[in-house]
Fold this sequence. Notes:
By secondary structure, this protein is an alpha/beta fold.
Amino acid sequence: MRPYLDTSLVVSALVHEEASDAVHDWLASRSGVRFAISDWVVAEFAAALSRKRALHEISTALREEAQFQFDSLLDGEFDVLPVTREEFRVAASLAGRSLQGLRAGDALHLAIAKTNTLMLCTRDIKLAAAGIDLGCSMQLIG
């Protein structure tokens, strides 16, 4: 099944974090695989970088470099999926059924992966547990 990368995974790939080495190893082991992300990841990635900058976890220069690298991946490495009205509805249903206290953005990632028959790959333990409980195809990385 084709992998859909959530924002936590993309951030760890492009900004040094504790799990970055594991993420890099996982990505390298999938050489030649075409990854899917969504327009939601595009928005969340920019917000995650902004938050890291505001918390002084990264410098302005590192934020700009990570955004540049991400934008370069958008131009060739990733298939960027639009987010549809149906996926918002599926996300609402998943969030309503979740016993894990699923956040709206995470429910949207699950819905995008589910409606496109993709495996959601994440670093987020809570998201992975909620996805498994909801019958979604999941892979926890790092």
